[in-house]
Amino acid sequence: MDMFWQLLVMGLAVGSIYGLIALGFVLIYKSSDAINFAQGEFVLVGSYVCLTLITSYQIPFLPALLLTLVFSAVLGWAVERVVLRPFIGVPVISMIMATIGLSSVMAGIVHLFWGTDTRVFPAIFPVQPLALGGVVVPQVYVWSLVTVLILLGLFTLFFKFSKLGIAMRATADDQQAALSMGISVKVIFAVTWAISAIVSSVGGVLLGNINGVNSSLALIGLKVLPVALLGGLDSIPGAIVGGFIIGVLETLAGGYLDPILGGGVKEVLPFVVLVLILMFKPYGLFGKREIERV
């Protein structure tokens, strides 16, 4: 039973990171109806930048993280301004294809600067495992869970009460109405991409502390996409709940089913769960059902 609780805590920690990264998918989809297939590369770039600041420039973790977030915000704004803004008003598939090309370009730049070898963050969180009753959990998982929960709470307050957050919600609901109220949709798009890059970088730093950093970390984008789809691609609470569901199921499958079946279940399970749920709820757990009248 102790193993179950240990896997549960670890699954909640990993799932919270998935939910944070999925938030980037949701924000971009709500603002532009497009899916950002370069989300995994934003995760990868953020983790490498933070790691480089810590190891090469000897900057303490918190200042390095803040600098990484500033860099990520500028990167997200620049990508929206230079690469994606020309696609405003054209079919959504064009923007989606642009993000696929962007992911290849960003992956090539990462390989050019950092290579493909796995790099490990220095011990940022306490190494001594944390004993919770009879359950022993590495502190990196506990601190990651706490960090993400705090960030998700701050983002919830931001979207609900801040002027910019309300403008983002208005733009996501109806761009024409937002324009009529004097909201700059182009500015909202840029802010959305900046926030998406920020949450991706935070997720990349936390995952890098757990598993190390290499080019395969970019694949997290494909793993997190089912999280966003599961919760409902236009639902922020759905991204959070979907992250917890996928994280817990993935960790439990890795602990119980992989040793029996020889491995591989952990990687496949998120997609199996996604298909089963979408069979009964095509718009996800919290997605908004759209009705077209013809």
TrEMBL record:
Localisation per UniProt entry: Cell membrane
GO MF annotations in UniProt: transmembrane transporter activity
GO terms for cellular component: plasma membrane
Keyword Transmembrane helix part of the UniProt annotation: yes
Membrane topology value: Multi-pass membrane protein
Single Gene Ontology BP annotation: amino acid transport
Transmembrane residue ranges: 6-29, 65-84, 96-114, 140-159, 187-207, 213-231, 238-256, 268-286
Main subcellular location: membrane
Pfam families assigned to the protein according to its UniProt record, in alphabetical order: BPD_transp_2 (PF02653)
Keyword set includes Ligase: no
UniProtKB keywords: Amino-acid transport, Cell membrane, Membrane, Transmembrane, Transmembrane helix, Transport
Protein name as annotated: Branched-chain amino acid ABC transporter permease
Native source organism of the sequence: Brevibacillus agri
